[in-house]
Design brief:
FAD/NAD(P)-binding domain; alpha/beta; binds flavin-adenine dinucleotide; Alpha-Beta Plaits; single chain; 6-stranded mixed β-sheet; 20 strands; 15 helices
């Protein structure tokens, strides 16, 4: 089917990618229908739910800017200028993220962000929203979606012209494609999971920790992190092996949970006021990486966001990458003289290597967050990275900064990161302080090995 002949674009999943894409499409004049299995999150009950936050970086901010939503979202995002590392002895050390105070990442409220995008989508008469619509399958021959009502009793069907699967890591659209075509699906589950905990505001409603930092308690094989919310609270997340020692499986009851937390996170204990309830009520979440060789099916459907490439959360990039997908999809749509199959192929071609690269970098970053930050040479390495960036800003930018503060495609970031790592290893050999680094050699190596970054 020709793109220009299409009356309505159907999106499954009104999460972060689905609602962003609905806004972008409607602003370009497309009619959209958006199906979501959950109730409308803008309802009163949903608004009272727990605070769960996400790190928003420049890639995601660029998409919000393009959708005209950044100003609103910034009303409830909090800048975090670095990692505040908490030692077991309670010592604090701030590791700045960027070269200066302008380079920060943003803690944003997941549900509010979703609501902002849904409000913007709903404000357009071109967008129709359908909540409580759980997709259970796709009839590809009849071009129909099969839904089940919230009680799980009633089934009904709905025709579509073109389908976008923005239905998350467990994507039913992906499942329906995989039933009829080999899409080279691989799911690598991590042997670590996560549990969300809460740090409430102090009795005056203020923050119990510095709000302008991402707090991290690295403990080698596991870690606790906490990101600020606008209401004075922090959402904390414990990342730990599922089995083994220590592992979630052995923390069966409150005495075991309390003893573990007290031993490893003593300074956090007084802050985690609802710890017992959090352990009881919040399930252990699974983490994994999903990759597919093919993201689309016969010009009828395409996947994006977590549905196409779910990644582990250790670089804070899943949503950012999903938003980048949406912008890339819109770029592909600029040529609407062709058919959907051609667009899907182009979209996948432009994105898949970058999705794979951020998946790899996210896995590598888990080791850095929970373990490498404890190495005294890590601080020297970071200081050297920032010094090289100061001296050669057009050529040497730390990999972390390229991911979080720039929009260079992820695969290119990965490639440059490997070169930079090699240079850092070389320059740090036998060196124990910054002033002992041979900066003349560094300048030669940087000029020879790293081409100038695009403006
Ligand atoms: P989702 O946001 O999961 O949306 C999918 C939507 O589809 C949902 O609304 C769902 O209800 C709906 N849906 C599912 N099944 C059906 C169905 N059968 N019928 C209809 N609708 C359906 N990313 C960051 O960028 N920064 C972070 O700091 C960060 N932290 C994270 C921390 C954790 C612990 C985890 C697990 C993830 C984190 N991520 C982070 C990743 C981020 O959450 C995802 O990458 C992002 O939500 C992907 O958006 P999406 O729209 O593709 O999927």
């Amino acid at each position: 089917m020709k793109i220009g002949d299409t009356r309505t674009i159907t999106i499954a999943g009104a999460g972060l990618a689905g609602s962003m894409l609905a806004v972008l499409l409607s602003r370009k004049g497309y009619c959209v229908e958006l199906f979501e299995r959950n109730p409308d999150p803008r309802g009163a009950d949903a608004a009272a739910g727990r605070s769960i936050n996400l790190a928003l970086a420049e890639r995601g901010r660029h998409a919000l800017r393009s959708a005209g939503l950044l100003e609103e979202v910034d009303r409830y995002t909090i800048p975090m200028r670095g990692r505040m590392v908490h030692g077991v002895d309670g010592q604090l050390e701030l590791h700045p993220y960027g070269k200066d105070e302008s380079e920060v990442i943003w803690s944003t409220h997941r549900a509010r962000l979703n609501r902002s995008m849904l409000d913007a989508a709903a404000a357009s008469e071109r967008v129709k929203l359908y909540f409580d619509h759980a997709l259970t399958g796709v009839d590809w021959n009849a071009q129909k979606l099969v839904f089940v009502d919230p009680n799980g009793h009633q089934r009904h069907q709905h025709g579509f012209e073109v389908l976008i699967g923005a239905d998350g890591a467990g994507s039913p659209v992906r499942g329906a494609i995989a039933q009829v075509e080999d899409i080279g699906l691989s799911e690598e589950m991590l042997d670590h999971g996560y549990r969300e905990l809460t740090i409430s505001p102090d009795p005056q409603g203020g923050y119990q920790l510095d709000p302008n930092a991402l707090h991290i308690w690295p403990r080698g094989g596991f870690m606790l992190i906490a990101l600020p919310n606008a209401n004075g609270s922090f959402t904390a997340t414990l990342f730990l092996a599922n089995d083994g020692h220590p592992g979630f499986a052995e923390l069966k009851d409150w005495p075991a949970q309390q003893a573990f937390m007290q031993a490893w996170f003593p300074d956090a204990m007084p802050l985690l006021g609802s710890l017992e309830a959090d352990f009881r009520e919040n399930p252990v979440g699974l983490l994994g990486t999903i990759r597919c060789r093919q993201w689309h099916y016969r010009g009828q459907a395409v996947l994006l966001g977590d549905a196409a490439h779910a990644i582990v959360p250790f670089h804070g990039q899943g949503m950012n990458a999903a938003f980048e997908d949406c912008l890339e999809f819109m770029r592909c749509l600029e040529d609407n003289e062709r058919d959907w199959q051609a667009l899907f192929e182009e979209f996948q071609g432009r994105r898949i290597e970058h999705a794979n690269a951020i998946a790899d970098m996210a896995l590598e970053n888990y080791k850095e967050m929970r373990e490498t930050v404890l190495d005294p040479r890590f601080a020297l390495r970071k200081a050297l990275e920032h010094e090289l960036e100061r001296r050669h800003p057009r050529r040497f930018v730390p990999r972390y900064s390229l991911v979080m503060f720039h929009r260079l495609p992820y695969a290119e970031v990965y490639r440059r990161g490997q070169i930079q790592d090699r240079l850092l290893d070389l320059l740090m050999r036998g060196v124990d302080q910054l002033k002992a680094v041979d900066f003349k050699l560094a300048a030669e190596l940087v000029a020879a090995e790293l081409e100038e970054l695009p403006a």
